[in-house]
């Protein structure tokens, strides 16, 4: 099987987890290759996500690595078995790969938690709001590139039909007019409507709340099939970064709970958004 030109974050994650299990077992890559009857270069390709690995080989490796976490093993087997083509693949070669990786991450998430202190999160954005944000940061983009970005963002929202989603928003998110008054009002109306869904929880941090020092605490946290497969995503000066190390995930979970702890409860948050809408 030829090596993948550009593996997805999910494919890389499967390889990373297999490497972690191997290292925990105290085996070298050469040792593991021998267990499968492949050469070390092929084993490196598996662990880098550059080559697919089948379910039977994942089970064999887990057995040789003495992994007893059956839920983790089944989750990894499921990742190896998944050959489906998601809707985001329609945009491969059209949008940067990170756009596709984010959509794939959300699609497979068992829950999503998000902190936003600058903009309404992409999963909540109206089409006009999304277009205003995209064209502000990338004014040089022609319409032929803006349109698929907006369309992709709108299609990501399908995940809200089935995935538990909790988001904490700082007040500037609602007050900042990325376009004009009408777009801002429509966005708040949409936010209120979406917050009524049974699987969606929206919390607000008002300007005057005490104990909030996280004005730059942007975060998206996606739950995996098992906690060990959770993933956090944060924006950095170099672009979006996906994090999956155990220490990073602990830190991100702690961050979310801190921010959540100073937010208003969902009922008071909806009332707060109502008030802000009337002020527009």
Q: What does this protein structure show overall?
A:
The protein is an alpha/beta fold and 280 residues long. The protein is built from 12 helices and 6 strands. A 6-stranded mixed sheet has the order 3-2-1-4-5-6, with helices on both faces. α2 crosses α3 (40-48) and α7 crosses α8. The N and C termini lie far apart (58 Å). The mean pLDDT is 94.
Termini separation (Å)? 58 Å
Major β-sheet strand ordering: 3-2-1-4-5-6
Q: What is the share of helical residues?
A: 40-55%
Largest β-sheet summary: 6 strands, mixed
Q: So what's the overall shape? A: elongated
Low-confidence stretches: none
Mean pLDDT: 94
- Give me the secondary-structure category: alpha/beta
Integer-rounded radius of gyration: 21 Å
Order of helices and strands: HHHHHHEHHEHHEEEEHH
Number of strands: 6
Helix and strand topology:
Blueprint: H1 9-24, H2 29-36, H3 40-48, H4 55-64, H5 70-81, H6 97-108, E1 112-116, H7 127-137, H8 143-156, E2 165-170, H9 171-175, H10 181-195, E3 200-205, E4 219-222, E5 231-236, E6 239-243, H11 246-261, H12 266-279
Parallel strand pairs: 1-2, 2-3
Antiparallel strand pairs: 1-4, 4-5, 5-6
Helix pairs in contact: 1-3, 2-3, 4-5, 7-8, 10-12
